[in-house]
Amino acid sequence: MSSAGEKAGEGNPVIRNCAQCLVHVPDLVPYGSKPRREILKDPSTEPRLMEALRSFPQAVAYPPNQTFIGNLTPDQLAGIARPWYGRDDEQDGEALCTGPFGEIVSQDLFYAILKAANVLTPPLVEFASEHRAALKTRLANHPVFSRFADFTFVPEPTIEAEIADGSALALRSGDTLLGGVRRDNRAEGREDENLDAHTLLETLCVKASGAIALKWLLHREALDAAEIDFVISCGEEAAGDRYQRGAGGIAKSIAQMCGCTSASGMDVKNFCAGPASALITAGALVKSGLYKRVAVVAGGSLAKLGMKYQSFLQAGMPVLDDCLGAMAFLVTPDDGTSPILHMEPGTVGTASIGASTSDEAVYRELILEPLKVLGLAMTDVDKFAPELHNPEIMEHSGSGDVVHKNYRLIAAIAVLADQIAKAEMPAFVDKVGMTGFAPTQGHIPSAIPFMGHAMQAMREGAMRRAMFLCKASLFLNRVTELYDGVSFLLEANPQANR
Amino acid sequence: MLSGKKVAVFGERDDVTGLAVRKCVEAAGGEVVYEATSCFV
Amino acid sequence: MVVFGLNEPANLRIMATTFKEGDPSFAGALGGIALGLKSYHIFELKSEIPADTWASEMAVEELQAEDELIEEIQETMRQVRGK
């Protein structure tokens, strides 16, 4: 191995491929946590909310969404004047649905995938007779998802009656009722509040959107599903029943749906830093030699849809948090070309419980220590990727630009470490920073949406190192005051020819 | 000024956390009777 | 009294006003009840905090917030308190 390879560390795994997708689900927004609670208090909220939702072409054309799937880089997005919403560009809507990293999936296609995600009899997801053929055909004709179309319908649907009595949730398309999602009414599930329609829809959304991302990953890699030997899921859902409320099993559910017959798997939980923790775990599994092709999958959050809808209504804007996010990554041994994930001892940033007594100590451990082990300063990193929430959503909801705040924090650490001067902070932020573009989907926007862009830039020789910084608000579990941090360094493969 | 006072603390994860504010208040002799850190994301 | 660590002037104004005068939007459980609590932002209290505690807890946050933002926050809090 060349000396450059030695410097990058022998035995580091690589991130070989990625998929970043969005699912536009306006008619599921009322089932997000905030809209649902507010509609229960005041039913007149619902028509006002529904009026403010975007059409599929509008969601597709929305520049932050285009950035998420890779048709725009974050720098190109920053060059587009705000407001980003309401741009009715005259472009071919179909062509923009897909990008280098994945697809923006439409609601009708997603409904069919929700049906495909069902395994129970009687099914959890049902559609009225007149809509069935169309949904199945739509799916069967899709270049990536056609294998999902192998499902059947029961002869007599009773879903409308169940929607009326509240044991099922309606799946609508505007004013048209297409079908519904029911609670588990079988003997085992009937009295379990954890198996109501809403919770099961949440779980189904994670499975279905995760499967979309994993299918795209396999498609981009031209890899047979049976070649994957391990899958890790990292969403924030709690899947299980009354006795095992958050026990998981989502990774294998998604992998099964996608045909990964050789794979085992597990779910990793770490709030927003789940994907980062999952990638590090995947890297460790590959580096140890236990597995060769590990897929990390993150499905989307139903609960977070419409979280900021009140701010949008107040500002006379469309509701911008109308998409589920989904991502998948393939981690393998070093292939000589893909960006490497640093896994040498001490090179992964953590926030030890002892250090978590002060914010500064946390950030020193997260950022400075791992770089120091590699003999690097913060100024040796081309880009830092922290929270990447779309500022158009965050600013209108009163949080300010969370992305910018995090870059100021990163720059502050550089000052305290004597690596830059206070006066250089704005320039440093410009150099290592980027604008946010990801939807407010919890674990989705935390750093990792930059992965596709970083991998692309590294393969082109335009970037050498990117540090991904994730924060996790563990204190939201109510049994700790800690917030966690996880970071890792991605570096262009030193063996790749430039 | 903080000494002996009962204080409610409201922090924000991406600005100043409740933890940091509490430690300052307590070091100045205040008593923190309520603490919350919000996470707007 | 109340001490804040959030840095959005608009949110600070609403919350500090609520603690002083009751809910300004006249909705919610605190509507119409004047609590009479004074609110401060931690940035205003630097001189009250022992220097070594400030250095270990607040050094990063002080650098993170732009000087103009710190001033705007302090001004907002003074306006709500009335001094």
Question: Any overview of this molecule?
Answer:
The complex is a heterotrimer of chains A (498), B (41) and C (83). With 498 residues, chain A is of the alpha/beta class. Chain A has helices at residues 3-8, 33-41, 45-51, 56-61, 63-68, 74-78, 93-96, 107-117, 129-140, 159-165, 197-221, 250-257, 274-287, 309-314, 359-373, 391-396, 402-416, 425-432, 450-459; strands at 14-24, 104-105, 125-127, 168-173, 176-182, 230-233, 264-267, 294-298, 323-332, 340-341, 383-385, 465-472, 484-491. Chain A has a domain at 3-11 and 336-491: Peroxisomal Thiolase, Chain A, domain 1 (3-Layer(aba) Sandwich), CATH 3.40.47. Chain A has a 6-stranded mixed sheet, with helices on both faces. Chain A has a 4-stranded mixed sheet with strand order 10-13-12-11, with helices on both faces. Chain A has a 3-stranded antiparallel sheet with strand order 3-5-4, with helices on both faces. In chain A, β4 and β5 form a beta hairpin. In chain A, α17 packs across α18 (425-432). The relative contact order of chain A is 0.15. Chain B has 1 helix and 2 strands, in the order βαβ. In chain B, α1 (18-27) links the parallel β1 and β2 (31-38). Chain B has one domain (6-38). Chain B has 41 residues and is α+β, with helices and mostly antiparallel strands. Chain C is 51% helix and 7% strand. Chain C is mainly α and 83 residues long. Chain C has one domain (2-81).
